[in-house]
Write a sequence for this structure.
């Protein structure tokens, strides 16, 4: 029996039938037995997720200071565009490598988290300048802090909903998430090609603080939050089926991908709502 497919492409490595062959009844009764057998454990995945989040957070704070504090940090200053481009492109490349070669997750996940920290710091500064009156506005840093708190609150709520069985992540749920995300990706592609290459004038709901733009961001946030359920389910099944130990890093990496997405949508939504008042 194959695992239910996740809409998160970074978690598809769990879906390979070879991992199903690793599951043995003797290794499904205790974390210690799985760890001793060199298999993935839930506690190991949680620990590695925490490490990646810490790395991402430290990187984000450092890069923020390099961009906003006079003289930078340790005498080093960088531009927001460098943080966005360097973190975004570098993270995208490393993310692709990890997605296609999961065994490298243990080596590449940490630098990926650092690059994501730089990216979200540059993104946060862009949002602050675009909607919140600039990075030096105390209200801007307040909104950014609120976005961080809400991101973890959403993650906790979705984990509780999944753990208690309120949301099970079944076939219909998965189909809705995958279809909705596919629609978002299609819109982004049409927007970039249509407006960027042909000047089609397609409404850019990502940057719009209109009621329609706010609604679009709210839907994007909902989809990102729903992805967490699919992530939790896939990690749980990876543990149950006896996936290799390195998949703990891969699962942590995959959760980080979704959490960064959620943070971006939360921040954009809060900023749009504030600018629209």
């Amino acid at each position: 029996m194959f695992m239910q497919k996740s809409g998160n492409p970074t978690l598809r490595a769990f879906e390979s039938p070879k991992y199903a062959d690793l599951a043995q009844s003797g290794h499904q009764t205790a974390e210690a037995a799985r760890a001793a057998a060199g298999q993935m454990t839930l506690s190991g995945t949680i620990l590695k997720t925490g490490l990646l989040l810490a790395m991402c957070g430290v990187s984000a704070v450092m890069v923020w200071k390099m961009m906003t504090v006079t003289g930078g940090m340790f005498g080093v200053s960088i531009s927001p565009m460098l943080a966005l481009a360097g973190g975004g492109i570098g993270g995208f490349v490393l993310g692709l490598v990890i997605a296609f070669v999961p065994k490298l997750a243990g080596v590449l996940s940490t630098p990926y988290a650092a690059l994501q920290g730089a990216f979200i710091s540059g993104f946060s500064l862009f949002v602050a300048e675009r909607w919140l009156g600039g990075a030096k506005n105390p209200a801007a840093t307040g909104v950014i802090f609120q976005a961080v708190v809400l991101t973890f609150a959403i993650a906790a709520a979705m984990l509780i909903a999944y753990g208690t069985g309120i949301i099970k992540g079944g076939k219909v749920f998965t189909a809705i998430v995958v279809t909705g995300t596919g629609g978002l990706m299609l819109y982004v592609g049409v927007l970039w090609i249509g407006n960027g290459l042909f000047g089609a004038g397609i409404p850019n709901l990502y940057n719009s603080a209109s009621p329609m733009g706010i609604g679009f961001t709210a839907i994007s946030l909902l989809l990102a939050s729903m992805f967490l359920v699919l992530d939790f389910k896939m990690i749980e099944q990876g543990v149950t089926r006896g996936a290799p130990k390195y998949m703990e890093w891969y699962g942590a990496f995959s959760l980080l991908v979704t959490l960064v997405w959620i943070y971006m949508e939360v921040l954009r939504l809060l900023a749009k709502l504030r600018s629209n008042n």
